[in-house]
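Q: Entry one of two.
A:
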Amino acid sequence: MTLLINYFFPEHEEPGDGPGVVTWTDGWEDNFAAISGRLFVPPVVRSLLYAQDPGSVREWADSVAADWFAPVETTVMGEDGVSTTVRTPTAVTVIPAHWDGPVENVRVEDFLAAYRWLDDQSLDKFPEADMARGLQPVIDAVFGTKTRADASQGSGLDLFFSSFPTLASRFNGGSE
């Protein structure tokens, strides 16, 4: 389900017998491993929402890092009677919107790593076949760009809509 939610029609998912029924093929575990066990911005959010104004997203991520992860200053009195200020890094608990949580002891480095793609698109890439087959056709349709899906697999958008004819009808202006 996680792969489906992130990519709409991932590489190792095939339409099953009936609307909304799918069959998972070998290899899905590797694609799931690429996005599990860490904080990340889901591909659909990154590609359809945050890509529209990455500068503002970067400003927001930096402000959250500064506000929520600011080191805690504590004054410690030594045996000699001299006080010292100690700065301790803060770890917070993150409650993801749609994933298993809470995620405990998140450090500022962990949080900012989820947004490192804003500075360099080559970092934190998602499995290419998942993107090409499932999400890229939706991105192309939304932004009017050319579909880059592998022709041998058909358009990911066509495959996605084949399981949801009502949605296909709305997307195609009412014609099925």
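Q: Entry two of two.
A:
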Amino acid sequence: MVGYDDASIPLLLILKEPTMSAADFWNKRYQTDEFLFGVEPNDFIRAVTPEARSGAKAFAPADGEGRNGVFLAQLGYQVTSVDVSEFAVEKARALAKTHDVTIDSHIGDVFEFPCPEDHYDLVIVCFMHFLPDDHVRFVDLLKRGLKPGGVLIMEGYTLDQLPLTSGGPKNPEMLWSVDMIAADFADFDIMLLQETRRFLAEGNRHQGQAATLQFLGRKPTA
């Protein structure tokens, strides 16, 4: 499994180091005092996330250094997050402490994380890209984890991102399109699904014009 959570890393770099695990790869990236993607939440997630009802639970897979999970906790969600990098999770926990909130952050592969079925009121995905087979598995995980009526928020890169330098994998098989995501979530109530060009300013790694897809949908109640 090779996923890309908020990073501009060509697949070739990983293939050149076949013995490097995903955890080792991301630990190498995150082993710095700098917050690579900043400490502010993703603009789209911030704009569309609903206020938390009492006891509402949120899941942030591949949450990296915690900027989005901490934002959800500030809104009142009980946040569970997971990331493969122990250094990223350490920074996420420190960021939560700085903001005087709590997140239940775990170190591990998102596919091995015991995600409860029909459990979360909200799930967020921020620039998390997979090769096709793992993408199918990831979509299934998202659907299973959400409660009926739960909300899914996602932003990812489209094929138009390939010539741009603001982030994202350079393997076209890992990038999104409206048709692809519409098919993945055809059983959802899709409230927003659009491709857009926008400026990213998220730490030093996400800077400049970007071609993204934004999704807001609700899991059916029946």
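A: Comment on entry two: The longest helix spans residues 132-145. The chain has one domain: 3-218.
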